[in-house]
Each structure stands twice: as C-alpha cells, then as structure tokens.
Amino acid sequence: MPIPPVRNPLSRFRRLLSSGIVLGVLAGFSLSAAPVDYDFYLCANINRNYVIGSKIVTTNGLFSRDETTGEWQHFGYNDTTITALAFDPRDRDVLYTTTLNGIWRSLDGGDTWRMTNSWDMTEGRDVAVDPFAPDRVYLALPSGIAVSEDRGQTWQRREHGLPDRGKFTQRIALDRVVANRGLAGCEKGVFLTVDAAANWRCVLPTETTVNDIRQSPHDPDFWVAVTDTHGAWESHDNGESWNQIANLPHEHAIYNVTFDATDANRLAVASWTYGVWTSEDGGKSWTSRDAGLPENPRVWRVGVEPNTGRLYASVFQETLYYSDDFGRTWTPDALAGSLVNNFVSVPRS
Amino acid sequence: MHFPFPLTRKILAVAALVASGSVVAQPSFEGPPPTRDVVASVPVRRAQYLARAQEMIDWRISRYAEIGLDKMDMATIAMKLTRDEDIAACDARVIELMKEPGTGPFWMFPTAMVAFAGRDKLSVEAREAIHEAWRTTRQLRGDTENHWVMYHTALYLMAELYPDESAAGWANGLSSAENRTEARGWLLDWMKLTTTIGQGEYNPTHYLGEYAIPMLMLASYADDPAMRQRGTMMLDWLFAELATVTLDGMPRGPNSRTDDTSVVERWYALATYFSWQLFGNVPVGEGFRGWGWGNYFSVLAENYEVPEVIYRLALDRDADTLQHDRARSRRIWRYSDEHMRPIYKTQYLREDYAVGSTQGGISDPIQSHVWDVTWAVDDPRGVHNTMFSMHPHSSGRVMQMFFTTYPEPMPIGVTSEGKPSYDSPDKLLGCSPYEQVVQDLDAVIALYDIAPDARFPHVNGFFSKDLEDVTEDASGWIFARGGDTYLAYRPLAPYHWVPHVSYPNSRDPEKTEPTGGRVLTSPHVKNGTILQAASVSEFASFADFQAAINALPLSYSLADEPTVTFTNLRGHVMHAKFGATPSIGGQPVDYAGWKLFEGTHLNSELGSRVLTISHGRLRRVLDFNTLSITDSVTP
C-alpha cells in the first residue's frame, strides 16, 4: 500500500503543537489515570535494503497520525535512520531525534535542525526529555549514556555505575512521577538512576541487551522490560526488583513492549521470532496474535494508539498493520516496505 | 544496517559500460602484463606514473565523448575541469546532478572534489547549485571507518570552501566553523588511532580507495599546511603498507575486508588499481576496477609523489621479507571486553609466493580474510592463485557486537546487500570466533574448535581451479603446485569435496556459478589445517617436496582442545593448542610485545606515531608528532 499523500504536514503538525501544554514526553503518560488526549507519532525507515550511498527515494523519518483521516503525515527531515523522537513538554516546537549521525534537535517544530552531538557520540538509540526539568535531555548511545543540561546544546557522559564494558544502551525511560529517576536498558541489564544519571546501579542483570523498558500509564510502579535472550520482566515496585514474566517465550529476542493507555490490563510485545503476543490481564497470561499478519511475521515493533486502543504492528519491511480488537484481526495500513523503529505517544494536556 | 557493497558497484559499473555501448580501449587492462622491472630514473618513473593517470583520465573522458557529456559522472567532470575542457558542459551537468543529491560519504567526497576542481572554473550558477545541495541535503555519516574518513574529509574541505556560513548555511545546522572543528576532530583522532595502534580496516582489497582519495584531497586542497602534510604522510603510510602486503601488485591476505571474488582471485580488487597507478607492476582491472574510485585518485594524482623507498618496496624484492605488524578490529559495541581487538599480522613474502595471517578470532564480522598463501603468476587476470581454510561463521550475535542491530535481521540482510555468501555454508569469506591461527614463515597452523550449535559446524578449504598436480597422499597430506610454489595442505579431520561457486549477483545469494575450483569441506567441529609452502626451486622434484613434507615431525590431537605440534620445513617447531598462546621454537608468541610494525621494511613502536620505511640504503621516517618527513640514504 503506498504512503498516503501528505497534506500540508507542517501545518497539521503545528496545529497539533498548538493544541495544548503537555505534561509527559516520549511515551510518557498522564500523572493520573484520568482520560487524556494524545498525539501519536512514529519513526519509520521505508527504504528496503538501504545501504549508505544509495539515494533516499522514499519518504522516511517522522510521521504523525491525522486523527480525521487516519493517515500518516510526514514532517521534519527525510532520513532512513531515525530511531527515536522526544518532545520538550513545555514547548512542542522543541523536539529531539536520534539517528545514525547522532542527535538532531529542532527548535521550530521540525523546520530546521541542528546536529548537536560530537563525533564520538553517534548512532543514538534513544532520547528522553526530563519531564521535571525539560532542559535536561538523556541520550542512549551504543557507547553509553550522555546527558545535556542545556536542551541538547552540549553533552556530557554520565555513566558512573555502568560497567566499563557493557554500556551499550538501547533505551532510556524516565519515571513520569518521581523526579530524577529513570531506567536504562543496557547490554548487561536494567540500570536505575535516582539522581538524574549522576549514578546508576544495576537492578536486573542480563547477559544480552535489554531492548525496551516501559512504565505503565495506569500504575507508575508497574514497569516491563524485554530482552534479547531473557524474555520479558516485570517490576511492581517502580523498577527496584524484577520477576520474569511467565507464559511468554523467551529463548529469542523480544524487541519492544507497549501498554494500552485505554485499558490497564492490555500489553503487547513484538518479536522477530515470536511475532505479536498480547496480554489482557495485566501480563499474567499471553496469547499469540499472529493470525492475519503475514506468515511467520517478523515483527519489528508494536504500538498502541493511545486515544483509541488501536494496536499497530510493524512487520519487517512489510506494510504497517493495525488491529481494533487488540490483535484478533489485522488490517493492512500504509507505509509499505517500512520498518517502524518507534511509536511515540505524547499527551496533549 | 548499512553496508558498502563493492561487488554491486562493480556490477553497476559493468552494466553502465555495457549500456553505453562503448568499446573504449583500456591499454593497461587489455595489454600484456607489465615487466615489473625497476625503473631507476626518477624522471622516467614519474613520467610513467603521470602517464598512467592520464591513461585513466583519457579512458574515462573518451567514454563520455561517445555517450554524451550530458551524462558525465562526477569523476569525469572533475577531470574535465582539471583539463579546462568543456566547462559549459560541466556547468550544465553539475546543475543537473545537484538536483538529486546523494545521502552520504560516497556522494560527499566526489562532490567536494568537483567543487574544488571547479571553484575557479564553474559558473556562478553551477557553484551555487553545489552550495545549495550542501545547504539543504542531510548527509549520513555511515557506520564504518571508510565511511567516516570520506564523510569528515568532505565536510572539512567544504567548510573550508564556504568558510563564513552560519548554521543556516548547512543542512546539519552547524556553522562552517563548527563543521570544520567537528570534522578536524574526527580526522585527527583517526590519524592518531592509525599511527598508534593501527588501522581498523587494514589491508582492504577495495577500501584502500576510500582512504587514499580523501587523504589526497586533504593533501591537495586543505588550506592548513599541517592538514596538507598530514594528508601526504597518511598517503605514504597507506602506500608503504600496500607495497608490503601485495605480491607483484596483487593484494593478498590477511585482509580486514574483501569480497567473494577477490578473496579467490586476488588480483580482482580496487587495491590493484593503486598498485598499477603507483608502481606499474600489475595489470589494472577492467574499468580501472569496478565503480572506479581510482578515477578520483587520478584527478589529483600529480599532487602525490611516490617516494622511492616505497616504490622499491613494491618492485625491488631480492630477498625474503618478514613483517610482524599490528592493526585493530573495527570498534566493538558490545558483548566483548575489548573496545577494539588488537590484530596481529604475520606477513612473509618470497619471490614465488607470500604467506600471511592474523591470529584468528573476530575482527570484521562480515568480510575479513584471516590467512592464505598466494603464489606469484605472470599474469594474474582470472587466476585463482591462493589457498586457505576457514570456518564459515554466520551469527547474529557477532553482528550485534559490531552493529546496533537486533540478533536476527542482519545475517539475512547482508546477503541481499552486497555480501551474498555471508549466510552460506560454502562461503570462503569471513572470520570466526572458533578459529585460531599461528604462522611461522611459510607454515601455518589453523585450529578450529567450533561450537556444535554453530550455524555451519565445518571447515572449508579452498582448492583453486589453477592448482596443478593435486595429490591426496596416503599420509593425509594433500600436495599441489601453484605457479612456482609447492603447497602441502594437511586437513586434520575427514573431509569431502564440493564444487566452488561464485556469486555473479551480489544481491542474490541463490544465484551461483561454478568456478572450476573445489572446496575441501570437513564436517567436524574439532578440526585443523596445516599448510606448508615452498618454492619449486628448493626441490629437485615434486616427489622430493612430498618426501620432505612427509618426513616432518607432526603430532596432533582433536580431542578436547585441538592441538598440533609440527616441525616445519624451516626446522622450527610450531606448537598450537586452541585457546592457548602458541609457541614457535619453544618460545610462546609474545603478542603483547608486538610493535605496530616490526620487520624487514616497516618499523614503528606501538604508540609512537613514528613509522620508519626502509629499503636497502633508503630510509624515510614519518613522524606524526612533528609532522615531519625525513629521508636519508646510507652512503
């Protein structure tokens, strides 16, 4: 299915930006369980087998979802390598993306961009804006963790407590209710900071990379982490202790986990080997939801549209799929040939 | 996943040539091989060097005389500008090409070269088209060492060309000064790494161009005399090593990165272009090899003078040479205690053959080549003049060590992105964590302790179509002759033969063609190979060679850790046990004590940033601490 035509994407984007002050960033959610409207974005690579040197012949990068039409509208720059997106909760014109080159910041809603990292901080994996101190931005790097205190203008390494080797950081997730607190998914486990990355300590050791960590939008003490070879893990004490989630396969990698902001019991995970699995009882039991997706789907990412509970699945270099019954049936969506690196929900108010 | 793909580039170039319908003479490819005689006269040698560059330029330009100047590529535009020819056509073509800029280093450096070659010649409109492309087009830095050299060199020079731009003048939102600082910082760090602990992409069969051309651009265009000097010195550094790691101009192993074709046809590589251009000692490839990065070197070739000492390294070899050198692996992101593994290279060259190796293990996860013996041939075109063994390793976990990928997609992805054999059991390309190698002069012991659940739990040995007198002896040795080299190959476990195939389509792992060669496949996880080479002239007959080999003391065990004790033809006892430090002559190999370069021609203390290049009475010292080049001649 072709990419839908872009209809004034920047004007649409700016309209979204002007819709209100946000309290959370990067899949952060409201402080309470009260209904909140969200904007929904994704970062997509739509160049099948792209290699350095090729011309970028399709439109890649950031897309926002138009609620009226259901279409994905591109904004910002065209890049095959965007892995993450984060907004400043005070000013939605300030946004950060991570790419192969490093971290790119826009102060004008995506019209112009500045590459803010130095040459030794490249191939960023994730970026997060501190919801309590939005000048502070966290950057997950294959070589560790860096933090900016000046909206990404300059960066300093903050890796005390991380191992000398094993600092590969795939994911940074900041606590939405406790200031200066966050979790990092690294090569050697889940690491916790309670002092804005001044120190880190391991709260879940692993032998292979932690691919994703998410905090429940309904219960801030409830976190889920997924890993390469250790399956999925849950914490009910705000990341201090972890237990492996039963009833999910765990010999091969799980790439990401997502919560449904409309239903506290709903979670989903994505895996190249296992496809899509969902839980509708808060993670106690899990069901494979591959029926209706391509055979043996290599699922790169799942995301839940937070206003409607629509479940999305990005199947490796196939079209995007969605399900309005949480995986029981699937419908092909746009973005043919894509690989979605991230779904990002941003509260409007 | 981002990978350069030289084979694809070659195919595209050939396709372009075919599509053009042009049949343009390329004398150095079509003619007889060069004599390899040393040209003693400096002016004559220089004239020949410049003539070779002009041959390249003439050939390239002549192609577009047939297919139309409105189709010119960037290399040809740079050539035309340098010759001050058809400037209006260059203007028009530049404007046309800048309408669809590329996305990374392979676009950036050609564009930078045209920008500089045309800075006083192109029209205002054409120059503005280039300027606008750089102002508006995001560029990807890439994810390998050669990408970064091209990216930062181009960025450095373009920031010099547009020195006063604000952040609005660049697609990356940095000012000219910031871009220049950023690029300079990386370049200096790369030069420091290379001159202290070695190059990551060491002895590449293709990527030499991706280093040499940017360095020549720095030497030619940089305003800063220190950067120009660095460019020149890095060229000397690269080409001195090229001279020592080639046999009559042909690349040979070990190689950080090579490909399915040139790992068996050693001549078939872009590095051969540089041997031809610099030394004139080998036939150059068709189309001056593949996509033709050599084209860009030829544009600026007159700005480099091949030092006589390096020239002599390549051509004046009247004695055996031995080098023990260090390099480094590419950067390891995870699943290793080492950020960059030290690579220990042993290189032994004789008139008839060369034997080279690293210690094994993982260096570059996809395209490396750990050891081989390559024998000399009069005309290397189409000849598969090499022998080696290897474990065909394929692993998502290893990919994760070096790339920011998940475990599953990359082994599949690389096969369709220019490395079709990567996930094939019969492949001959790559390194393995289950391989350990030790070399003494012209003898090699390669041991394999392969995890039983490894994807391809067997050992492949390459037996070329060009071998003669292949004899499977009752002793267990396999004897053969390649050129004027006798070869003895000892598999340590039972084996069978499978036809060797090539991959004519670099994006299709299913399409293969037999080459006439064979692969000795030994399906045992505890395994090993012993290789001994010798010159035909050392023995009265092939039978005498076989008798000598059979008389050599040899004991081995494949239980537990594979272990070999072998007394080689040179009388040295080699002892190797997988997982342990090997010994030669009873002395453990002192890898920790290896210098950056130590040997007959190249010497450098680890971390010193000083390289001494010597040949006979000639000596050149490159000192990156003082940015000085010092030549001396022993009276």
UniProtKB/TrEMBL annotation, chain A:
The organism sits in which domain of life? Bacteria
GO annotation (BP), single: xyloglucan metabolic process
User: By its UniProt entry, which Gene3D superfamilies does this protein fall under?
Assistant: YVTN repeat-like/Quinoprotein amine dehydrogenase (2.130.10.10)
Q: Which residues form the Sortilin N-terminal domain?
A: 232-331
Q: Which InterPro entries does the UniProt record give? A: Sortilin_N (IPR031778), WD40/YVTN_repeat-like_dom_sf (IPR015943), Xyloglucanase_GH74 (IPR052025)
A Pfam family (short name) is: Sortilin-Vps10
Swiss-Prot/TrEMBL keywords: Repeat
The entry's protein name is Sortilin N-terminal domain-containing protein
TrEMBL record, chain B:
Q: Which residues form the signal peptide?
A: 1-25
The alphabetized UniProt keywords are:
Signal
Question: What name is this protein filed under?
Answer: Heparin-sulfate lyase N-terminal domain-containing protein
